[in-house]
Amino acid sequence: MPDNLIKTYMNSPVLSVDAEKTIQEAGEFMLKNEVRSLLVKDQSEYVGIVTKTDFILRVYINETMDPEKDVVLEIMSKPILSVDLDSTMEEARKYMQKNKIGHIGVTENGKIIGILSKENLLTYFGKLT
For a Cys-Cys bond, which of 8, 22, 23, 83 suits 3, CB 3.0-4.6 Å? Predict the structure, then answer.
């Protein structure tokens, strides 16, 4: 049976983008780094998370945002929901399902140190079959 702790499957270190960067800049950064989410930082504090889904729903489907002018702060999800580093994958799955989210912060001593995604859950649960 595979290790069932989040720390085995989470993405770390955390990549982040400044809250005042344009949506276009954030999207390019995500593509360059091949990630589906970024934490959003305002000065030295994480204030939200922006995901591939945020880009699709808020920028391209609704077509209300201008990616070259509007900033990440306007499309991010907040607050950042999180689970502790020592939580199990099953606990994370239930929490993510309950809150209908695809990415969750992973904390150690109250500080975000990683991100867990639906893809990480699929990797873990796929090993159980």
Answer: 8
